[in-house]
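Appendix B, record 7
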Amino acid sequence: MQEYLNKILCGDCIDLMHNIPDNSIDAIFADAPYNLQLGAKTLYRPEDQTAARAVRDEWDSFESQQQYIEFTRQWLTECKRILKPNGAMWTIGSYHNIFQIGAVLQELGFWILNDIVWVKTNPMPNFRGTRFTNAHETLIWATPKKTGKYTFNYETMKKLNNGKQMRSDWDINICLGEERIKDETGKSLHNTQKPMDLLRRVILSSTKQNDIILDPFSGSGTTAAVAKELNRRFIGIDKDKKYVEASIKRIEKIQPIDLTDIEVSAPKRDAIKVAFQELISGGVLFTGQTLISPHGERVMITKDGQLVHSLYGKASIHVMAARLQHSVSFNGWNYWFVEKRDGTLVSIDTLRQYIRDIKENMKKAI
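Structure tokens (predicted):
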């Protein structure tokens, strides 16, 4: 394992991941081939008829959708094996592949925490004028286990968002200008190089300093570069020797930055206490409302702030969660969810943070 740390490795990611121990990686960012299947036809800009950059590389070519899905299943299987139970799994893609990746993630038992929409503030136009301009990509943030105590640096994200909760739509420029890595001819080295600002947000949100971050499709080395900048350890893997060589040169120039004024730690012991009953009195929950567990069990909130189950009787959010898990104790804040009108689930811990924010603001105003 040590021989891989802080290096960019040349080879097939599935083969190389075989050599990484189980449960040893804190986070993975995977920018896998998109399987665009663009063919040989060249796209030209209408204003000057110059050729537009497009992905027709060999690494993005697959014989069929089934071959692509099987390839996805193989590398994600390795990712799940080497990730720590509370690790972060990030993938990114377009409409060509992200739904297939998401399906395989769920098939393998990953628990999806969020899908993030990267809104490209300066997207490439649709030159043929036959569809909407494709102005976004989708990131999926998942963890290997439903009950994993994953890292989410809520306060850091809030600080980066001018004191407001970070939303799941991120407005970030595509990679252009000096940030784009060039080859010996002065052309862009990699067609799908991601902006460093995107990786900064991913890494700052879901990892801690000194964590190990793996990128199995390292490309131009953006994940590794940002990991080094933010005082994280990294492992990059790519099949293409020219990408590996360029990445190594790029990373050598990166200097870690002082994170004192960027990362915000808020230990739970220092956080303002919020009781479950306060969610009811604060109006974010109500008596008679149904809460749902990750496994689909349903309980009802009673007027005294307890939960009632048809088989397990009446108990607090923690005791009821422990009963259903056949455990001595369990953190109910991470176990119970509310179903929104659109069918999505929101954790009661997220609702607790809403009440905590109100109390913090009142405290500051006094």
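Remarks on this record: The CA atoms of residues 86 and 150 lie 5 Å apart. The longest strand covers residues 83-93.
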